[in-house]
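seq:
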Amino acid sequence: MGVEVRVEGLTKAFGKQTIWRDVSLTLPAGQISVMLGPSGTGKSVFLKTLIGLIKPDEGHIFIEGVDIATCSEKDLYEIRKLFGVLFQDGAMFGSMTLFDNVAFPLREHTRKTESEISDIVMEKMTMVGLVGAEDKLPGEISGGMRKRAGLARALVLEPEIILFDEPDSGLDPVRTAFINQLMVDLNQQTEATFLIVTHDINTARTVPDNIGLLYHRHLSMFGPREMLLSSEEPAVRQFLNAQTVGPIGMSEEKDADELAAEDHSTLPPLPPIPLQLFPSDGRPRATQPEPGAWCAANGVVPPPGSFLDDGSSFTVPPQTSVAGGAR
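struct:
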């Protein structure tokens, strides 16, 4: 099972440039969370800060009772063992085969025999659909395969927290769909805590349990998927629904004249909230909420057509599990 990550009042600047300030959120144990934001808002910096590669100027990051923003190098080294990271380009060693790339963390950080390492590597490569490609070099395979190999490497130490830095970057829509399904399936199998940084709106709308939006040097909102997909907060609404009307412009934020010139009275209605992506076997993940549960609990009427099943609106009866409801 994954572990909770609690962030309190996190602030980071490089010189006079503030990246973000006073960021507070909790990544619930075992759940999938997505972090969104316009380009240049510090999403990758946030990931690097979570794992201790960058020290924040202010604030705290609590993982299993340890504040990695202030702890010793020894304690930080131990906490990092809880993490697995999928980098944007896979970050493969070009002169190593995929097998050796995936085996690298085991050879560096454990005392396992080569036979044990081989069993673990092949298990993880099976999980990501790369059996038969273990002897290939990174330069001999596609970008999507490199990402899957990077994911296999991130899994070999059985991490309880997995960070994904734009897993869909550079991929076509079909391969992005495969990566999304793979992440959902892996969360079901590992029950680890996932944080995904992405620009892909379809990923954000269908994959996570929680969504966050970094914008204008702060965290605009973080919470359950249904809360953000039904939100009328201007930046959240604009970004999640890919609209041009709103505070976000080509250079991140619009100036006052641009905003004043916009006609907000003609905003299109919020689109329906889609059903969340299920694991391939059709069984809900351990932490997967029921469709419409947040809306019902908070008295929010979702946009018309939300949670469709076989062409009709889906309503969650009280105390009814997802397994017996819509898919």
